[in-house]
Amino acid sequence: MAHANSEWIVRLHYAFQDARFLYMVMEYMPGGDLDGFVKCMTAVGTPDYISPEVLEMQGTEGVYGREVDWWAVGIFVYEMLVGETPFYADSLVGTYTRIRNHATELNFPEDVEMSEHAKDMIRAFLSSSEKRLGKDGVESIKQHPFFLNDEWTFETIRQAVPPVIPELKSDDDASHFDDIEAKEPDPAEFFQIPKSFAGTQLPFVGFTYSNETGYVCFSVLLKFRRSICGQPIASIQKMLDSATLSDGGAVQVQAALCQLNHISESELELNEKCRHHAEAEERARKQQNELHTKLNAQTEIARELDERLQKNVEEEAALQQQIEQLCAQNVQERENVRRAQQRLTEQNEKTEELRAELAAFREREMALKCQIGKLSESIMAREENFSDENRTNDEIRRNNIRLVNELQAAHKKIEQLASDFEQETSRRISAQHEVDCIADQLANLQNSL
After folding, report:
1. Percentage of the chain exceeding pLDDT 90
2. Closest by alpha carbon to 85, among 31, 48, 117?
3. What is the DSSP letter of 23?
4. Are 184 and 41 part of one and the same domain?
5. Mean pLDDT across the stretch 309-322?
6. Per-residue pLDDT averaged across 98-112, rounded?
7. 3-state DSSP assignment of residue 209
8. What φ, ψ does residue 149 adopt, rounded to 5°?
9. What is the domain count for the chain?
10. Distances (CA, A) of 62 to 54, 58, 130
């Protein structure tokens, strides 16, 4: 391309480089020299904006028209209102699959405010090519309700006042754009410095190209370079000094001299760059040592964190085991409380039975006392007639003795029942105290859990 001389080959005019890229200034090719259409069997365009009919025709012979552009219009209208394309996926295959299934994949997020006219227009754009909005011309798009308003029409839109007018302080005011921090390129970020000097990039150090000398001069310089290749600089200078202008080589000699000066400058520049590379290598080694030190520190921190994590895991296991033991103890305490309450209920029932029995004995005691009183009165009455009723007195005495014995037996029974009642009362108080203690322990256990 550097020495091409044909209208069918793109020419190279200039070339230069920086720390990262090689820049080539090529001939400008605006295009537009062909007429007609070219058949294409592959999908062309940005994946998120390709219409489904383009994907369906991929690899086959088919024809599609301007309706594919109206599909793209629907895509970027959706993107402007929502913030992302409607059929985006993490992979290219996923995006194409969603585009082909656009009838079911087109959704509008609920958290984005959008008018029904806007949704209807987007659905009309993102539909099949047979019924897509715009397939019959742009007039159908202009008549859509989304564009109907009282402020402007498509004929007066150039004279209408825009809804937002930015305030500019000068012609180059860029305050309405996000600030981008410019970062100076660091060659060490893009090129890994080799441990040993290889010299493979030396032919490109300081490389530039200019096409101002023309095609003929380049071929002459090439021959002259071959003739002086490998000779000392002093010999080359001597040969240049002894060159004559009779053979028409003045231009060639001058160009060769420029090339020689360029080689000298390149040598100086190469030495300077070697020095810079050595310094960069030294800085890289220092950075490597610092990173190694930081890595060791991070490794030590990671080891300590692993130890803490292991300790926390062990403590968690111990706490879990303790919780399980407390839960089992809680279940056992609940069972003890249930049994104590059952015993207390039984003691209360037995106490009530003893009270009823004691009341019955007391009633019998009162009845016996009444009988004794009556018998005493009978005895006193019969003692007056003792002489006449000896047999009756003997029987009365025997009855009296029997009643006295029954009364004594009743007193003993009453005393026994009173003693049993006191014992049952004591046992009931003890059982109630035991239930209260168990309830307190259960409450403390629940608080600890």
Report:
1. 18
2. 48
3. E
4. yes
5. 88
6. 93
7. strand
8. -155, 175
9. 2
10. 9, 9, 15
